[in-house]
Amino acid sequence: MEELHSVPAWKETLVTRIIQICGYSSILFVILILYFLLSEGLPALWKADLNSLFSTRWYPTESYFGIWPLIFGSLFVTLGAGLVSVPLGIGTAVYISEVAPSWTKEILKPLVELLAGLPSVVLGFLGIQVLVPFMRRFFDLPTGLTALSGAILLGMISIPTMVSVAEDALNTVPKSYREASMALGATRWQTIWGVTLPAAKSGVITAVLLGMGRAMGETMAVMMVTGNAPVMPQGLQTIILPIRTMTATIASEMGEVAAGSVHYSVLFLIGIILFIISLVVNVVAFTLTSRKTTRSERLLS
Amino acid sequence: MIDHQTQTKPPIISAEDLCIFYGNFRAVKNVDMKIVPNQITAIIGPSGCGKSTVLRSFNRMNDFIPNCHVTGKITFHGHNIYDEDVDPVQVRQKIGMVFQKPNPFPKSIFDNVAWGLKINGMKGDLSEPVEQALKQAALWDEVKDHLKKSGLSLSGGQQQRLCIARALAVKPDIILMDEPCSALDPIATLKIEDLMRELSKDYTIIIVTHNMQQAARASDYTAFFTMDSDRAGVMVEYGETSHIFTNPQDKRTEDYITGRYG
Amino acid sequence: MRKRRLIPQQAQKIGFAGLSLLSLITVIPIIAIVIYIFIQGTPAISWEFLTGMPSNGMKSGGLWPAIIGTFYLTVGTAIFSVPLGIAAAIYIAEYAPNNQWTRLIRIAIINLAGIPSVVYGLFGLGLFVVFLNFGTSILAASLTLSIMTLPVIISTTEEALRAVPTSFRVVSISLGATRWQTIKRVVLPQALPGILTGVILGLERAAGETAPILFTGAAFFLPQLPHSMFDATMALPYHLFVISTQVPGMPIQIQYGTVLVLLLFVLGMNIAATLIRSRARARRQW
Known about the structure:
The structure holds 3 protein chains of 3 kinds.
Chain A: H1 9-41, H2 44-47, H3 50-53, E1 58-59, E2 64-65, H4 68-99, H5 102-117, H6 120-139, H7 147-172, H8 175-183, H9 188-199, H10 201-217, H11 220-225, H12 246-253, H13 262-288, H14 293-300
Antiparallel strand pairs in A: 1-2
Helix pairs in contact in A: 1-13, 4-7, 4-10, 5-7, 7-10, 7-14, 8-9, 10-13, 12-13
Chain B: E1 2-3, E2 13-22, E3 25-35, E4 40-44, H1 51-58, E5 68-76, E6 79-80, H2 88-94, E7 95-98, H3 109-119, H4 127-136, H5 140-143, H6 156-169, E8 174-178, H7 186-199, E9 204-208, H8 212-218, E10 221-227, E11 233-240, H9 241-246, H10 251-257
Parallel strand pairs in B: 1-11, 4-9, 4-10, 7-8, 8-9
Antiparallel strand pairs in B: 2-3, 2-5, 5-6, 10-11
Helix pairs in contact in B: 3-4, 3-6, 4-6, 6-7
Chain C: H1 6-41, H2 47-51, E1 54-55, E2 60-61, H3 64-95, H4 100-114, H5 117-131, H6 138-163, H7 166-174, H8 179-208, H9 211-214, H10 236-245, H11 252-283
Antiparallel strand pairs in C: 1-2
InterPro entries (chain B): AAA+_ATPase, ABC_transporter-like_ATP-bd, ABC_transporter-like_CS, P-loop_NTPase, PstB-like
Keywords (chain B): ATP-binding, Nucleotide-binding, Transport
GO cellular component, one term (chain B): membrane
C-alpha cells in the first residue's frame, strides 16, 4: 500500500455525502418515473371518455380507446410464453444444478447467458424471417404473424432469467438435505422432486415470476411477429391469430402521436399499467426471497 | 490389530481388508471388522483417523465423494455391497444413517418421517407407520399433537430424534450414527443414549463418537482407530467395551483411553 | 440385493433423459441462431459496408452512421450510469445501515430493474425530450438508457464489493486509513474485475435496446452524422427494426449484414466480460 497521509475531515465527509446521495438516487429515479408517467397518463382518464377507455375497441383514429384488448393481448401472449419458458427454463435449471456433469455445465451456462445477451430485435428479426413463414405453412394460415409466434419468442427471451434465478435457488439448498435423503435409500431423482425442489420452492416461484414479468415487458420481438391486431382474445383460436400487446401499442403508436393529445395521454396511461404490473411482480418476488435480492436484481435486467 | 471378539453369532455386516482411497491417498487401511447383530458398536479414536470415512463406507455414502474408491470387501447378507451388480440405493434402505448435525427436511414432522416410506413405494394412509417410528424414537409423546408443524421448529435434541425416527421408518437392519450427539446438550445426549439402548433390541447400531465416556457407558463393543505413520487410519483394537476400557492390550489404545493424547 | 429396483431407477433414467432433452431444446436454438446469422450475414460484410454511408434510401451502401451512433449512445450511457451506479453500490455495500431506508433503496433498485424498456422510453420522452427540452437527441437517449442500465451496474458492483473479504478492510482501518481511503485503495481495486464485468454486461444490453431510444433519440433517415449531443442519431438496433419491417424492397442480404454487425457488437462485449471474469477468478488473491 502507498503511504497513507491523513485526510482532512471535511474531505471525507464530502465524499461520504456524495456517495450517500448516489445511493439514494434510485429512489429518486423511481419517483421521477412514476411522476412523469402519472402526470402525462392520468389526464387520459378525464380527457378520454371513460366508456371508451374500458370498452373493447382500440381504434384511436376514431377515438375508440378501449384498453382491454391490449391488456388481454399482453396477458394472453405472456401466458403462452410461460407455457414455453417454464418447462424449458426450470427444467434446464434443475438439469444444470442437480444432474449435469461439470463439463456439460460449462457449456450450458455460457450458452444460456448468450441468449440473455441477444437483443430482442435480433430475435424479432429471426422471428420474421424464420418463425413466421414456418407458422404460416405449418398451420396453413393466411399469415404467420400470430400470438403463438409472439409466445414462442417471448418464451425464449424469458428463459435465461428463469434459469439463473432458479439455479441459484437450487444451489442454495443445503447439501445436508440431499445427503439425508440419499441415506434413506432415495434415488437422486426422488431426492430432487421430494426434497430439493420443495426446499427451493420460493426461489423457483420467484424465477417464474421474474421470467414472466420480463416477458410481459418485452416490446420489440413481440411487435415484430404478432401482427399487431388489437382484438379481444376469443378462445383457443386466438393462438393462431394476430394479436397486440400493450408494449407493442406504445412503441408503434407513440411516434405518430401529437404531444398532449388524448391518444398521447392514453399511451402514457398504458405505460402506468405496465409500471404497476412490474411493480407488483417485483415486490412479490422481493418479499419471497429477501436475502437473494442482489442476484435477482442483476438478472432481472 | 488386536481382535478380542468371541463370536457367538454370525456378524450382520463385516469388513474384510477394507482400504479407502481419496484419489491416490490411502485414508484408511486394512480394516477387518465383524459387527455383532443387535449390539451397539462404537468406533472411537482421535480426529482425522478415518472413523467417519469407515462408517460411511458401510452404506456407500462415500460414493458421493469424487475420487473416493474402496478395495477389499464389505459383506452384508452374503453379498459384497461393493459388487458391480449391487444397487447402492437398496443398500441404504437396509443400512440407515443419522448425521452429526440434525438435518430434518424443511417439511412437517409427519412428512419428514413419511417421506422415507413414500420413496419406498408405500402408499395410502401412513399415519400408523409414522406413529410407530416416532414412538420407537421416543418422540411420539412430545409431538403427537403437532405433527403438522415444521420439523425445523423442534429443539436440537428433538430434531435428532426426528432424524432417527425418519431412519427407523424404512425398517433398516443397521443404523449408522456419525457423532449424533456432538451438536446436542448433555441432557439431550443422555436421552439419545437411552434411546440407543432401547433400539439395539431390534436393530444393530454402529456409532462413531469423539466422546470416550459415551463409548464406555453406552456401547457393547468398541473399535479403536488411530492414524498410522503413513497417515492412513488403522483399526488398532476391537472387542467388548469392558475389555477395551479396563484391559487394553495395545499401548496406543491405553494411551488414548487414559487421556494421554487425542 | 441385486439390482431389483427397476421402477425408481427407471423413473430416474427417464427423468434425467427428459431433463437433458429440455436443456437441449433450450440451447440448440441459440447455437442455431448464431450460426444462421453468421452464414447469412457474412456475405454482406465488407469494409465499405462497415464504414460507408447508406444510399438509395438505405437499400444499399454502408452502415457507418448506425455503427457510430450505437457507439455514441453506449459511451453516453456509460458516462452517466457508471459513476453513479458504482457510487450507489458503494453506498449500499459499504456505508448503508441496516434499516428501513436501505430496504427502500433495494426495493427501488429491484423496481428499476423490472420496468419494461418501453416504459423507460415513455419516461425519457416525458422528462428529457419534452420537459427538459433536450429534444430527440443523443443526450436524451443516453440519459434514458443510463437510468435503465443503473440497476445492473449497481447489483453487479455490490456483489463484487461484497466478495472482497472483510479482513482486507479491517487491516486497512487498523492501519489508520479512513473508510473512503480503504474503499478507494483497497476494496475497489480488488473488486474491479467484477465491477468491470457488470459494467460491460450492462452496456451490452443498453447497446442492443430499441424501445428506450425509439422516441428519445433514434432516427432513421439522417442525411449526415450527428454533430453534437443534441442531435438525433441512427442506431443499429433501431436501424435493424426499421429495415426489416418498414422498408419495402430492402435487400435481404443487407438486413442479415446488419444483424450480424449488431450480433458481433454484443457478442464482443459478452466475450470481453467473460474473459475478464475468468482471468480475475484465476488471479484472485483470496
